[in-house]
Amino acid sequence: MTRLERLLIEKIDENNQKYQLWTNSEPLVIAISGGKDSLSLYSLMKKIHNHLLPVHLRIINENLMHFTFKEETQIIETGIYSQAKEKSKKGNCCYNCSRLRRKALLEFAKSNQAHKILLAHTLNDTIETLLLNMLFSREISTLKSRQELFNGEYELIRPMYNIEDKLIKSYVKEKQFDIMVNLCPENNNSKRAYIRNLLTQIQSDHPHLNIYDNLFASIQHIKKSFLPFKIED
């Protein structure tokens, strides 16, 4: 095990200990997109858990669908993108796609007698979601390491929510994963892409700061006395 791999596993284990994300005996569904984050999460989780159920939702017609661990992953054909695009006439395509993907993952979990689904969101996703919700949804909210659905019947688990993207990139380079290109037509035109580009520009303007880390730290240090309203603990 490399030094980087050990560090990442320690961070994941720390999250599990802090938030009690899973037990050793339960089956865990893990969503595999074929991208760097999901492949990294699966690779790391294989070293600490014995009952993983990797699944890939084929959302669009991916003619060349190659990624590391594909042989271990169950592939489910879907029409999610076309459905989301149709629904987007009355709303946001990415939002509708996300809801449909979550529904498909819940159905897969149910069919496999599992109730926890692992998602490979990172610290960067946590911060981007925070800013997305503040700017476009007029609320202060973001991703959680553990999110209950349907009164706890299912749970979305994010073991890497506090791991920076740059560490994942280093891990992918170290392991030489075969990454599948994101072919979604909305990938570079989404609000999330806009937020990510904005943060990249801010980071470029202030190279001596770690913008993502600062923002992540800020949501853990709320000064209530300096807010224009009262909030409960």
Helix content: 40-55%
Profile the largest sheet: 6 strands, mixed
Say how many strands there are. 6
Shape: globular
Strand order in the largest sheet: 3-2-1-4-6-5
Task: Determine the N-to-C terminus distance.
Answer: 41 Å
CATH topology: Rossmann fold
How many independent structural domains?
1
Low-confidence runs of at least 5 consecutive residues? none
CATH class call = Alpha Beta
Q: Measured on Cα atoms, how large is the radius of gyration? A: 18 Å
Q: Structural class given helices, strands, pairing?
A: alpha/beta
CATH homologous superfamily identity: HUPs
Mean pLDDT: 91
- CATH-level-2 architecture: 3-Layer(aba) Sandwich
Order of helices and strands: HEHEEHHEHEEHHH
What oligomeric state is this? single chain
Proportion in β-strands:
5-15%
- Figure out the total of helices: 8
Task: Give an overview in words.
- By secondary structure, the chain is α/β, with parallel strands linked by helices.
- It has one domain: 3-Layer(aba) Sandwich (Rossmann fold).
- It is 44% helix and 11% strand.
- It contains 8 helices and 6 strands, in the order H-E-H-E-E-H-H-E-H-E-E-H-H-H.
- Helix 2 links the parallel strand 1 and strand 2.
- Helix 3 packs across helix 4 and helix 5 packs across helix 7.
- The longest helix has 19 residues.
